[in-house]
Each structure stands twice: as C-alpha cells, then as structure tokens.
Amino acid sequence: MKESNKKSLHVKTGDRVIVTTGKDKGKIGNVKKAIPSENKVVVEGANMVTKAQKPNPMAGIQGGLVKMEAPLDSSNVMVVCPSCEKPTKIKHEIKDGKKVRVCKKCGEQLDV
User: Fold this and answer.
1) 27 with 4: CB under 8 angstroms?
2) For residues 13 and 53, what is the distance between their CA atoms, to the nearest angstrom?
3) 16-80: which CATH topology?
4) pTM of the model
5) Domains of the chain by residue range
C-alpha cells in the first residue's frame, strides 16, 4: 500500500518567480503548474525543451518539433514579491485564523 503524504511547496500556480540556477538563471516568469508530489514547478518561458510530435490526423495535430516548458525543481526558484519587486523567501504567519504566506523582506502578504 502507498502512503499518501500531502506535500506542499513554497510556490503556487500563478506566482511570479525568478529562476536561481541553471541555464535560465535570472529568468522571471509565472508558475504555470505546480507538481507537489514530485517537488517540481513549470515556469513560463524557462527550461524550454524540444520534443518530437507525431502527427495525428484524427485529432488535427500536425507533426514536427515542438518547443515546450519542462518542469524545474521547486528549490531552484524564488518568489518575486509583488510589492517590493525583489526575490524573497517565504514565511508563514497566522492572520485572522488563516495561515498566509508573507514576504520576509517587506512583510507584505502574498496570498490575496
């Protein structure tokens, strides 16, 4: 039997992040998809790979080479704070009985 451990990431879908390592270091984009089970995120315009696509006339898909974003490890991205516009770590605080994410640099709440 598999244990279903609920994992969490410091980033969520829609967050603006900066890539901190690798060939795309310094690139800023939004998180398109978060994959907590694998500890990975897909960032718009970062970690682009070329895949060969088979044609499928039934679905109207043309074959050829397709560029797409591949998942990055979530530890390789940092959230960019919307108020101070700087890459920041996240801290969690309890406000009004709810757990919210807060910027460590300016103290502004990230979850709106």
Assistant:
1) no
2) 26
3) SH3 type barrels. (2.30.30)
4) 0.81
5) 16-80
